Amino acid sequence: MRRCHPSIITGVHMSIRHSLLALLQDQPMYGYQLRSEFEERTGSTWPLNIGQVYTTLDRLERDGLAANDGDDGEGHVMYRITEAGQAEVSKWFSAPVIASNPPRNELAIKLSLALTLDGLDIEAILQAQRTASMLNLQSYTRQRRAAAKAEAEQDHDVAWILVLDSLIFTAEAEIRWLDHCEGWLKKHQSSTARRKAAPTTAGSQDKNSQEVSR
Amino acid sequence: MSEQVLQLRKVSRTYGSGATSVGALREVDLEISAGEFVAVMGPSGSGKSSLLTLAGGLDRASSGEIFVENTPLGSLNINELARLRRRAIGYVFQDFNLVPSLTALENVSLPLELDGVPPRKARRQAKDALRTVGIEKLSERFMDQLSGGQQQRVAIARAIVGQRRLILADEPTGALDSATGDGILEVLRHRADAGCAVVLVTHEARHAGWADRVLFLKDGRIVDEASQSYDPSILLNQSAV
């Protein structure tokens, strides 16, 4: 059963390369076997087509991270991980996942512009977003309950539960952020309502720092 | 059509009078059916608690009418209102409001006994309610022998004991850690699924996510609502794009 939420597909960059390499660390495998192992272990959260798998295996082989061991006698081309591949997997697991370039937040841009324009009801804009986020949160919570029930019935689906928890906490954080925005904008609306956006004079930022770049 | 358990028709509540009067609730219309779980959110002073105290018959509306199981609260005298509260309405508070000198079982059976139910029958019903919230084995414990989460379950058992079908919960997870709070929401959700009407006041969006409907209050008015029909199978069958 496919249970992907659109945001999982469009909003998250997934390292297929590292995931397949990690699976090869278990044992040598062929393409279709890798795909089914990947889908089983991630609860079919991320769909993977077989073309992607073979393209990735070609690249892993090219980069010396996996080796092609040829036919296993049943028509399957087997791949195994190399020493360099094992080092790459260890590096991947030990490194934190960092969103170095957060996507532009359309709502933040919308609100900043709304502040500079006359006749717009910023509270209504915030409330529309809050309601939409709450509808998402309700959906995720229902799916989480269903997943927890399945788990209680020994139908384990760890990856799916982790994804749902992540979506729940993200939606909650967005609603908290909207509440914060509303309070903050109320305080500053009077002083900014008539001010047009001034040209930015932000200086250059340290590219290596963890501060969010604009 | 589901049975209406709670109805508010153009309900307002104003505190004070003249220039200094404050409108806590302004012409609120609301209908909640049996089996529905409704969360109420809004900033401090938006009227959340006023809505709950009015719905629970703990306060009187300045105008408009409130019906609980089709009985207009405004038509009841103070004794009739107290009887209706004990028979039909269960309240769950953030700080539990349990009697420390009574056991869990006695706390739950107390409202029934006050209502004239014979002690043996009251205790049997209290035991059923404690079983429903998963703490039947703790019946003989006193409050200082229970954790916060267990005490809140006792409070919910007290709220649902007998035939009460309207549960009003005012920040019931406020004093609990996250995991224990989730357990309480699970109990409230089950009660709604079993046919109670549940109204939860909360400032935690994640907790409101358990509800069928979320009402947003601002300045005493309902300004928006997030509502979905409850059918997890539809959600689980979403296709990948």
From TrEMBL, chain B:
<keyword id="KW-0067">ATP-binding</keyword>
<keyword id="KW-0547">Nucleotide-binding</keyword>
<keyword id="KW-0813">Transport</keyword>
<dbReference type="GO" id="GO:0098796">
    <property type="term" value="C:membrane protein complex"/>
</dbReference>
<dbReference type="InterPro" id="IPR027417">
    <property type="entry name" value="P-loop_NTPase"/>
</dbReference>
<dbReference type="InterPro" id="IPR017911">
    <property type="entry name" value="MacB-like_ATP-bd"/>
</dbReference>
<dbReference type="InterPro" id="IPR003439">
    <property type="entry name" value="ABC_transporter-like_ATP-bd"/>
</dbReference>
<dbReference type="Pfam" id="PF00005">
    <property type="entry name" value="ABC_tran"/>
</dbReference>
<feature type="domain" description="ABC transporter">
    <location>
        <begin position="6"/>
        <end position="240"/>
    </location>
</feature>
<dbReference type="GO" id="GO:0016887">
    <property type="term" value="F:ATP hydrolysis activity"/>
</dbReference>
<dbReference type="GO" id="GO:0022857">
    <property type="term" value="F:transmembrane transporter activity"/>
</dbReference>
<dbReference type="InterPro" id="IPR015854">
    <property type="entry name" value="ABC_transpr_LolD-like"/>
</dbReference>
<dbReference type="InterPro" id="IPR003593">
    <property type="entry name" value="AAA+_ATPase"/>
</dbReference>
<dbReference type="GO" id="GO:0005524">
    <property type="term" value="F:ATP binding"/>
</dbReference>
<protein>
    <submittedName>
        <fullName>Macrolide ABC transporter ATP-binding protein</fullName>
    </submittedName>
</protein>
<dbReference type="GO" id="GO:0005886">
    <property type="term" value="C:plasma membrane"/>
</dbReference>
<dbReference type="InterPro" id="IPR017871">
    <property type="entry name" value="ABC_transporter-like_CS"/>
</dbReference>
